[in-house]
UniProtKB/TrEMBL annotation:
UniProt organism field: Paenibacillus xylanexedens
PANTHER family: INNER MEMBRANE PROTEIN YDCZ (PTHR34821), MEMBRANE PROTEIN (PTHR34821:SF3)
Pfam families: DMT_YdcZ
InterPro entries cross-referenced by the UniProt entry: YdcZ (IPR006750)
Name of the protein in its database record: Transporter family-2 protein
Coiled coil: none
Amino acid sequence: MRGIIFALLGGACITLQGVANTRISTDMGTWQAATITQLTGFILAALILIFVRDTNLQGLKQVKPMYLAGGAFGAVIIFSEVTAIQQIGVTFTISALLIAQLFLTFLVDSNGWFGVVKQKMKLPQFLGIALMVTGVIIMKL
């Protein structure tokens, strides 16, 4: 149940962040919005880290260098999301974003990429993705 609550919270924050970034980018520019968003996110994460006192910096040595670049995806995500919201609106952008996310996670799970346990995908998973895509197409008509 906790996992579902956090997933819903994360999804809501993605939408709110996209809208806020679009408003910032209207006044300042898209890369400026990405910079401010990354900076405020860093500050909040650092404050939470200090508050919970979870300082396992030794684990950093165990992380593969390519995974340390994961935060850089945030800049691309923000730029892409802001640009898409400006072009096609919030609802369609978030719908397309979720489909892209689901499709890529489907590939990661089914191929066992990045060290995740390989999952066997069956007809219900294929139908779920097809229904989401169909729903977005119908919504955009």
